[in-house]
Design brief:
By secondary structure, the protein is an all-alpha fold. It has a single domain, classed as Endonuclease III, domain 1 (Orthogonal Bundle). Helices cover about 50% and strands about 0% of the residues. The protein contains nine helices and two strands, in the order αααααααβααβ. The protein has helices at about 10-20, 30-40, 45-60, 65-70, 75-80, 90-110, 115, 140-150, 160-170; strands at about 125, 175. The protein has a two-stranded parallel ribbon. The protein is globular. The two termini are about 30 Å apart. The mean pLDDT is about 95.
Amino acid sequence: MKNRCSWCLSTEEYITYHDEEWGVPVHDDQKLFEMICLEGAQAGLSWITVLKKRDHYRKVYHNFDPKKVAKYTEAKKAKLLTDPGIIRNKLKVKAFTLNAQLFLEVQKEFGTFDKYIWQFVNHKPIVNKFKSMSEVPVSTPESEAMSKDLKKRGFKFVGSTICYAFMQACGMVNDHMVDCFRYKKMPKK
């Protein structure tokens, strides 16, 4: 039996997500946009709630194409608020469109969102050496800096804790436990 991080053991969805995605460095802008949206949607909820709705989110948010999401009208957002397949929180639904608009501005400024967001970890993953989940922080100086800069640009649902969860999910930090089978398999760049 494979050793895994303890947080993922409660459901098959978590195990698959842990084994195939969590902690793998992401450099694709559209995937980074998806993850910043979904991490924001998760605020105040458990990740499994979002994970179970992710496929539907992809469907109704045009596979997280920021150019399309940036153009969502008030009528489109109102319709989304009636969709039980997503988290129907008015502020979160509004944030997706606002964040898409700001995401496009960051792309213009930096060339790619990837280039912008990875600067907070000096463009390479931070490899931690945690032996238990109790050692894993909820935020770090890097996630604080990311949060502060995103907020300054006007992004919503990008607090330091959300940014750290984003960093973990997108492989900007390797927070797999050292005894987890995925720990040594994570790319270093």
